[in-house]
Amino acid sequence: xxxxxxxxxxxxxxxxxxxxGFTGLVGFNSQSAWAHGTFxxxxxxxxxxxxxxxxxxxxxxxDGKMTYTPDKFEVKRGEQxxxxxxxxxxxxxxxxxxxxxxxxxxxxxxxxxxEMEHDDPNGKRLEPKKTGEILWLFDKAGTFEFACxxxxxxxAGMKGVVTVIDAKSTSKxx
Length: 174
What we know:
single chain, alpha+beta, 6-stranded mixed beta sheet
């Protein structure tokens, strides 16, 4: 009898957790940008369309720092970029592309849920020595951030900046 009471309690607890929604467990809610299909830095790319270029990003740790190489680059608004993210480190790392504010908010959620993993249109979590890809269309001009939000990694330097310039303004200058 005691065993079946424990089983029922476990099922009820599981049901309560599922009732709150998986998104609540990982720190997202229905207000999250990706839940609505919108992103601060653009939108997921279309594999049927031409990629303007490929940018390889290497994540690693050395000498007490965690870095991306390159840690800054510029793209034109309207460019579709294929990111090839290589984790050459000994630890798991992430690449999350968002606004500075969006990454700051997400960082707080990651501190509460450090095992949260990402395989989202704008982010990947990669185990050591693994490679992942993101296809991204930058349809908004501005300055955005890519970062590893695993607790402690951002503070150790694992962040970078992408500047999206308005292609029209650069063509007028020539």
